[in-house]
Amino acid sequence: MDQHQQPTPPRYDQYVDPLPPTDAWACFLSARYSQRKTLYQGLTATEKELVRKELRRVRYLREYFETLRLSPKPNSAPLVVLLDDSRRRWKQQAIQNSKAALAKCDKELAQPNCYHKPLLQRNRSLLLQVQQWSTQPAEDQQRKEELDPENYIDGLGAPDDSIDDNPRDPNYGYNGWVIVYEKGRGGVTLDHPLCHGQYPHQKISVQKLLYDIANTPLKRSEDKNQLRYFHLQANNMKWVEDAIARYYGEASGLDRQRSTIIRERGMSKPTNRLSNTEKLLKRELWHGQERGGIGTHLPPHARQIRPRCAVVPSAPCAPRTHSTLGLPMSATTNTNDVVLFMPYLHWEIEKRLTRMTNVIRKTRQQKEETYYMERQNKRRGTWGSVVDKVMTARVLRQDSIPDDTFISDKSMDDAPSWRPSSRLGTYLWHAAKLFQLIDEAADWRLINDHLYGESSLHPRRTLEQYSSWTADDTTKRDRQQVVYRGTWMKNDLESIPRVVMVDQLWMWILDESKWGRNKPDPSAVHRAIRDYMASVDKGQINSIYDLALIIVDECSKVIFDRTKPDLRPEVVDIFGSAISKIAEKKTESYERFGRDVKRMNTQDPLETSEELLRKSLNIKYEWSVLMEAQSVIDQLQIMQEIFTQQITIMTDFEKVLRGLGSGVPSSQLDGLTSTLERASSLLTDMKSNRDELADLEKRQAKTRTQIRELLDMKQQQSGIIEAKAGIRRADESVLQGRSIVVFTVVTIFFLPLSFFATMFGMNARELNDGHMGIGTQLLLMLFPSLGITILSLALAFSTR
């Protein structure tokens, strides 16, 4: 090969996926449309069935978005139509600009010293492809039809009788995860017809996992060398009850209605007549642990399973028959099952939280309206029509998505306030909006179908909802979170505000070989567990308890894990920054108060301006800083409370592990010792995380104390100023008293003078040539004056 030959430029559409697909459906999605037919034809029968099933699901979900609009206005076009139109407009603009761009690219390639020639050659290939684009809708439609999977996948449009292909089922479209670990071999791929993918990324449809009674891999196994881990993606009590029933091979989960009737009548079901599911999910370990259930009329975020770690005797295994002799064999020695409920801290994007809150609010409103209609019609004796209306409303709700369910990013607005101006920006914005709806469709359906079931769904909750769980609306207080204010920037359109959430981990360890877990997973915690399992050494997992500790560790350290490159907020750093800013405001308040006091000391205390007094004694700024400091302390205390509960749970779990040592052979003590060391290390990490939050609280509490001391000093300064003002008023009173004395003396001195002057000025017969005598005039003057004086004194000294 010639050393001076230029390297071959990359194809214009060349792309290498950094994360290779793990199953046939992922491979199908990652392939280009023109290559999917060839890829599909090379798949096995099982893989083809998986692709067909997923394509049916995509077709069903696509019907939801065909009428969805960005604006509540009736004349606005659906989002899918807007996306097609913006794509067409962008392609027209790209074709118009491609000629000039191609000429510019050729000009740059003609230069002898072009150092980025491979990139220019790739751009030239792209521009040539752009010029070949068709702008006619008919040709685009023809190409779409050529690439449509219905042209090369047989039976795609035909209805399927499979249990997981019923779109009307509330569990349609959800997947569970399966991880199998064998002692001595490590992680293995479960060879089961219902599971697809490779270890540790195997998935299974929830409908098949929970309701395919004959074939579900959840069935109880007596293989003690195989550790099985099943993960469900939501805290759904109905799924848990059905999963436990499938494990024990029982037809159904808990009969809540029957249990309620028995409890209301004061009866108890005999223990020997309880099913294994009822024994494991007995009231004190299941519904009795629930707070804010269906019948409490509390908001959905009040629901929580109280933290607990308990040991339950395992259900006895069914007796087996020897395969050769045909004789009955003794049942396997009973073990203990472990039940664990633990809260942990997580996070969520604020806009997504607002959209999900709107969905919950709308679902709750529909439930209340349905309940009110049932009560009204039941009183009128038209129960049959009520059932018809309820079923009709349920079908309509499943067949349509309300406009404001996914579009509204704000609590009150129906549409975003920002729109892109360029054609490419509009096209990408519409595509992002549609992707957002597709990404959240599963959560919407989960809330709508399971929020108010007999065994309810437990939604996620914010710190404020966890603390004030009886409050109906905490949106305003959620936006006062330290993490929200630390990740939201008013002038930065690219900022993504986030909030701290509280999730729940529900875990069951059955027969010491099977692990079940329910928890929400928006931050790829389960993905982190699967990645850890993919790289773990064989000797690191000796029992199901090691896997349990790995899962608890991943949940507990979500907000403290700085190694994940996702959008999770750096909670500790954000709180530290907020505390530092509050301390700076405190210092500024002290300095301002000191300057005001100095100015007042340089002036005459009795002549200090009123404006300066009002400014120095105003506590509005200090009060806002104090409230901000108190909010930080409250949030830190809530998070510490959650870690305290985790420590309590892990302490109980460690006691369970130590109790296993009494029945473990000496050959297995090394494995148990390593498990105990892992548990002790995890417990130490939890305490360290709690102590880190406690240190932040101490720093903020110190600042809060100093702000309170400043307010006390301002109050004392106000008292001093009031005392000085009192002295000033007393001095003024003395001066006023002296003035009154002078006025009185002058009045007394001039009173007789004025009397005699007036008397000698009278026209009396005795004094001058008057006609009236002086005695008569005195009588006319004295008696009316005396009467008026007596009346005035009576009114003045009256007690009424």
Count, helices: 24
What would you call the shape?
A: elongated
Q: What's the β-strand tally?
A: 13
Secondary structure: helix percent: 40-55%
User: Given the helix and strand composition, which structural class is it?
Assistant: alpha+beta
Taking the alpha carbons of the first and last residues, their distance comes to: 122 Å
In percent terms, what proportion of residues is strand?
A: 5-15%
Main β-sheet description: 9 strands, mixed
Instruction: State Rg.
Output: 41 Å
Task: Summarize model confidence as the mean pLDDT.
Answer: 80
Low-confidence stretches: 1-7, 260-266, 321-330, 395-406, 411-415
GO molecular function, one term: metal ion transmembrane transporter activity
Subcellular location: Membrane
GO cellular component, one term: membrane
Membrane topology: Multi-pass membrane protein
